Amino acid sequence: MVIFHSLLMYLCSLPVKSPQSQNKGTTFIRTCFNGIGILSIPYALFEGGWISLIALFVIALICFYTGILLKKCMDSNPHIKSYPDIGAQAFGKKGKTTISIFLYLEHFLLAVEFLILEGDNLHKLFPNFHLHISKKKIGGKQVFILLTALVMLPTTWLRSLSLLAYVSASGILASLILVGSVFWIGAFEGVGFSEKGVVWRYNGLPMAISLYTFCYCGHAVFPTLCASMRDKSQFPKVLLVCFIWSTISYGSMAVLGYLMYGEDLMSQKPSNEISSKIAIYTTIINPITKYAIIICPIAMALEETLLVQNNKLVSLIIRTTLVINTVIVALLVPFFGYMMAFIGAFLSISGSILFPCLCYLKINKKLRNFGLELIFILVIILVLGFFAAAVGTFISVKDIVEHIHMK
């Protein structure tokens, strides 16, 4: 409580520009609201064992550093407004196209994952729910995916990042409630924190790394958020606050869940206790508050390509069409966990770790001289990043293929 109060006072005491600029761009606090999120990751800890927590913190540090590299790339040209613009600055049209494909595919699949997660959680809460339309029975999960999309749709119509910030700000409170609910279940409902788990599971480490990286796959939005700020020099502080908050949330959820259920984590079913219901409902709220932020970069890119940024009707049609497409894919994709691991291994590592380093090395010609920063980027980040991406992608694709054959 003391830490949170001190942090809030610090954010509120930051200086702002003159009144003439009050309506232009987002503030430090609003940008923090846009960037903070939480997904439950006890399963990642279950896959890799306790030692894999080191990977969580290492990935957080690396992703924070690569976020700073993106800001430095933006400083090289005041006309850069998005991540693909950074690719263009570094490698020309091919760089812009490559980064656009990776990042927008990542965000599209992430939006799909949110819908699948919502469908799964709501179906667990209401397992007997279904609809009959024209004598055809529609399963509860499919219905909940459709209903969730309808709830999320109006938030995607908001074109201002400042307004979207107020929507996603509720995710901060949801994160606190979620961690608190899980702790309450363990401490006061007879579950306890006595499970030991395993120290090391080497064959599950690639999956754990993929899932951890998935949690920090926000780099596609970073340049957009930075460009929208009134005082762009505050952006590194925004990243620091967001990464600290997110890592504490992720780590707390992982440790609490693993201590409570250990190796029986995957077999646990939601109980009828109020605290369990609160935890599930809060997990449902979080994707709803973040869905529009995920869709926004794709919609903005399409609007820019079609030169319809100022046409509100066309913008509404584009964003609605995007939501419909994510619903279609969510209804067709049956494997949430494996797809999440693939996104983390192939798309998130590329977009959050590899591409920022490659673009920075290309744009910052001073690094051509052999130095500590160059060694750190080449040896530590790029080599390990390529290795993790290759192994994680291979394992996740293998799991997906095996899952399809089992159907």
From TrEMBL:
This is Amino acid transporter. InterPro entries: AA_transpt_TM. Residues 1-19 form the signal peptide. Pfam families: Aa_trans (PF01490). One of its GO terms (biological process) is amino acid transport. Its main location: membrane. Residues 24-395 form the Amino acid transporter transmembrane domain. It comes from Handroanthus impetiginosus. GO terms for cellular component: membrane. Keywords: Amino-acid transport, Membrane, Signal, Transmembrane, Transmembrane helix, Transport. The chain crosses the membrane at residues 51-70, 101-118, 138-156, 163-185, 205-226, 238-258, 278-301, 313-333, 339-361, 373-397. It is found in: Membrane.
